[in-house]
Design brief:
Blueprint lengths: L2 E5 L4 H12 L3 E6 L4 H9 L4 E5 L8 H12 L2 E6 L14 H22 L5 E12 L10 H22 L3 E8 L5 H7 L4 H9 L8 H12 L10 E4 L9
Parallel strand pairs: 1-2, 1-4, 2-3, 4-5, 5-6, 6-7
Helix pairs in contact: 1-8, 3-4, 4-5
The chain binds nicotinamide-adenine-dinucleotide (NAD).
Length: about 250
């Protein structure tokens, strides 16, 4: 049976991904800083398949221990997707070191450390797969998102050398680069837009803003053996944004 570690399992993309994996017969080890009522209800629907861990992943000293613990309880992990995170819009001139560090930690350092820990012998199965999530904001001028985008840029820089190393251990690693997806994270900034700003945003995504299912479908494909010929790639899902008529 596949066993996939999903961080941010209570969030928009994490929960949808976990549910898709469970529906496909995988077991899911879900981690989040808060365990929501809604994910507990999902766990009840899949008895013995969804294991929930409440943990602050930014306590990076404890990450290797956390991975060791889940492997000792559930056995080697066959997949990992890092969906935990948050965004904080802040103009560059008001950005504080602690805010930039917090974004860097959860979006870049944490997935690198978990990937490193999982890559150790006995912590992963043969043909395991890792999926990390980057963002369109690392490629376009998204006002107030420079620290978040910089952390996502680091995740993208990590990919090729990590893929080369992990391939020797029979682990694939790919990334999905997402445009806005309707989740609590994007709502934290889209809710602040004016009506005009919201209209312009909608117009720049001809296929609409993403639904969590759109992201989860792609993530599950990259975690599965159906994508066995794909490694070290960033796959973009952007609702037609980059090919829109301007
Ligand atoms: N939603 C978007 O528009 C969008 C676009 C591009 C990329 N992404 C990326 O997709 C991923 C998932 O985003 P989402 O939209 O589902 O976000 P979300 O806010 O819906 O969920 C994030 C989850 O992470 C958890 N979390 C936050 N800090 C944590 C910590 N320290 N330890 C453990 N858990 C923690 C939260 O509790 C939450 O459940 C993130 O990497 C995000 O940057 C999202």
């Amino acid at each position: 049976m596949e066993k996939v570690l999903v961080t941010g399992v209570c969030g928009g993309i994490g929960k949808c991904t976990a549910e898709k994996l469970l529906a496909g017969g995988s077991a899911v080890i879900g981690a989040d800083i808060e365990i929501s009522e809604s994910i507990r209800e999902t766990a009840e629907k899949y008895p013995g398949k969804l294991f929930l861990y409440q943990t602050d992943l930014t306590d990076t000293d404890g990450l290797a221990e956390f991975v060791k613990r889940i492997v000792s309880v559930h056995g080697p992990v066959s997949g990992f997707v890092h969906c935990a995170g948050f965004d904080k819009m802040m103009p560059l001139h008001l950005s504080k070191a602690r805010d930039i560090e917090a974004l860097w930690k959860i979006h870049a350092l944490v997935p690198m450390l978990i990937t490193a820990a999982l890559s150790k012998k006995n912590n992963h199965t043969e043909n395991a797969a890792v999926v990390l999530i980057t963002s369109q904001s690392a490629h376009e001028g998204a006002m107030g998102h420079s620290a978040y985008a910089a952390a996502k840029g680091a995740v993208e820089g990590f990919l090729a050398p990590a893929a080369a190393e992990l391939m020797e251990k029979n682990i694939r690693i790919n990334e999905v680069c997402l445009a806005p997806v309707k989740t609590p994270m994007s709502e934290s900034w889209t809710n602040k837009l004016t009506d005009e700003g919201r209209k312009r945003l909608a117009e720049s995504y001809p296929l609409g803003l993403g639904e969590p299912e759109d992201a989860a479908e792609l993530i599950c494909f990259l975690l599965s053996s159906e994508s066995r010929w794909i490694n070290g790639q960033i796959i973009t899902a952007d609702g037609g944004h980059s090919v829109r008529k301007v």
